Amino acid sequence: MSLKALPISVNGLKKGYGTFLALDDVSISIRPGEFLTLLGPSGSGKTTLLMAMAGFVRPDKGSIEIGGRDITRLPPNKRDIGIVFQNYALFPHMSVLANVAYPLRLRNVPRKQAIAQAEAALARVKLEGFGDRSISALSGGQRQRVALARAVVFEPRIMLMDEPLSALDKNLREQMQFEIRRLHDDLGITTIYVTHDQREALTMSDRIAVMDRGRIQQLDEPQKIYNRPLNRFVAHFLGEANILASNAISGLPSGFPATSDAMIRAESFDIQHDGKPHVTIKGSLVAKAFRGENWLIQVDIGEGQHLLASLPADRSAQCQELVVGQNVILYASPSQIHAIASERPQ
Amino acid sequence: MLDAYRDSIGAKLLLWGVSSLVLAFLMLPTLIVVPLSFSASDLLEFPPRHWSLRWYESFFASPAWMAALSTSLRLAILTALIAVPVAFMAAIGMDRLGFRVKAGIYGFILSPAVTPGILLAIGLFMVLAKLGLVGTFSGVLVGHVVLAIPVCVVVLNPAIARFDWQQALAAQSLGAGWARIIVGIILPQVGTSLVAAGLMALLTSLDEAVISIFVANGANATLPKLMFISLRDEIDPTIAAISTLWITLVTVLVIFINTRLNDNHT
Amino acid sequence: MSEASGERRLFILLACPAIVLTGFGAILPIVWIIRQSFFDKAGELTIANYGRLLTSDLTWSAFGTTLSLSVMTLAICTILGIPLSLALASVSRKTAGRLMILLLLPLWTSILVRTYGWVVLLRRDGLINSFFVATGLSDQPVPLVYNFTGALIGMVHYMLPLFVLPVYAAMRDIDGNIVRAAASLGASFWKCVRTVILPLSTGGVISGATVVFVYTLGFFITPAVLGGGKVNPISIRIERTLSTFQDWGEASALGLLLLILVMLIGAMLVSVRRLLRLGVRNA
Questions:
Q1: A281 - beta bridge partners?
Q2: Which A residues in the span 42-101 are in contact with C, Cβ-Cβ below 8 Å?
Q3: pTM for this predicted structure
Q4: Closest residue of chain A to C188, computed from CA coordinates
Q5: Coil/strand/helix, residue A299
Q6: How close is the nearest chain B Cα to the Cα of C136, in Å?
Q7: Among 1.20.1250.20, 3.65.10.10, 1.10.3720.10, 3.30.70.420, what is the CATH number of B63-265?
Q8: What ipTM does this complex have?
């Protein structure tokens, strides 16, 4: 089953609640069949944006188009959008099959056919044979899948997901991330996914829109956002970012703008350079911690700056011998250093 | 929860159209009585053409009405004075007893509230008749107290449940007996609920009509009983005046309870 | 926390005044009614009271009136009360709280005051008939009081707030996302109400129905005043038997029959509630 992939266009969306601006002139172009994640902290506007696309929030200004059709004034029940809610929102008074068949029956699909299609959708999410169960008898992960099946069974124009995995435990969550992505790839349907978990966003998305205070801070592919964040907010939100004054680093490439700060991810550091091209940072050890898969060390490099370095397991021996207060030298590859606008007084 | 149907005209009509009509329906008789009480005419014309306080004068000047008012007020105050402590003690006792015993006692005490009033009325009438207490003040009082106790218990239960029993344990270890604990520690902390329970007991007694009709005979007739008899016989606009006084009193009390209780919850 | 038996005795003692008072003021009267129903006017032990009552047309018509008043009150309360409950459940708790005060205010107004208000409103020359005649909705005044209609209006007015409370509570409990989900899946407002909101409110409606029945089956004041002597549910027959005919035995027997009716209907509704809990709708 391959559904038509539609582009989405959000233009100049504004939404305020009293003095609080939830959406501040938001515009995005979403490609057909894309898996786009809206990533940000609480209050960033990501859920408001999703709800505006769904039709539960009416924007003060701006428009939303799906497949070229302006849906801004359309009520939610006419938008033909599949939504998966955070708490699944399954109908407790209906069986699993009745839940999944519900949108089909609303569209006057004859009962037998609706049941068949619903069962096919359940099979697609690996819940074959679960049709007769009641919702209360299901585990969280199973409810999650029923919600998915119900949202895709009627071949919606797009899919919206509001932090669907936040209620699940870590292992189940990681498994479901792959399942959801696989479902998306099978169906080819344009999907907007909301989360505050940066790891989830990096894993699942074609592109990520990082949001803060009602604005989109950066919209790009995961790797580009991770390695080349446009500002400090984005840098700090995804992974552990060290933003250091450029004069703390020796060996910076000549093209590096003198007035910019340098962003280096924690995992880019090493305590030996093995002859490869490198930059050098000197400091003294403040703390170290063993975390199983890696070591975290905190280093004071002067002028009140601390950096966090993540060293892999094969550096274990050296890390164990490090003593608080001792001088350390850290190396990083020049390609891992990203110039970022400085906010320090120059 | 209906933000999805914000634009549905059908939804708006059904919900707000019907609701406004229903709320108007609910307020109508209460509202109509007030202007009528100030009407100069005894013909129950609406709107009144001339205004006057004659019905209020008639009420306060009538020995029968004043006697009934006095009886009702005395009954109400005594009901509150008896029902609140009784309910308070019962609530404390119930809170500390096992689940099944508590449920049993609770059901027992609540039974007057779910029994049709007419049955309580005639039953009490016959019991009192056997004891020669029909038409006496105490006879009616018993009926009112028995109806007020469940109401007070329902009001007091949440407050007692919120009480931290560790304090009672601490007090005991310091040497306090139960009487001191109840009066000195528990009572001050559930104070607002006691006031609310008292007001509810007052209202229950003042409004009680069915038992009074059967049991409050002659000199001990209550206000509602007189109103009932008057309504059945002929329509006396004095009732409009009484009604307006009643509505004013109740509105003040309800607003008082509401603001007091809300203050306690914030 | 160890409960010494001495303390346990204390707590039971604390509950005693309430138990004794309730026992004397409520339980004893009911027991007395049961006992009295087996005595005739002469003071002899007999079941003739029941015999007379159950074969009398008056009794059966009284039961009929009682039940039809209650059932119709419930029907009207349902039609008016469900939209009102939904409206209250769909606004913020704060707003709902304020509107509730409006809803509950009539409950605090004495029943006699309200009954009086209705008499004034519904009379031939009352406000409502004047409105009907003035706007041409009717050529003549419609008989709205001192009959079944008047009694019904009074009862609906009394019970509506009490019906709405549990229905509102049940609707409040419905997860807002479930309604949004239904909408996103394509349900119109009416379909959503029919397939999602109402089924999930059934528990509250049954509770409301139970309240309406338990109260209205025993209603006395409202039918007595607004019924004008033409409406005779069991409660009024009891009063008449007691005061006019001074037949304590027969009045008690009627009273017991009423009590049995209330308990039967209460039990029925409780089991309906339980059955609903077990059922899950299939596709």
A1: A249, A330
A2: 54-56, 75-83, 85-87, 89-95, 97-98, 101
A3: 0.86
A4: A77
A5: strand
A6: 19
A7: 1.10.3720.10
A8: 0.85
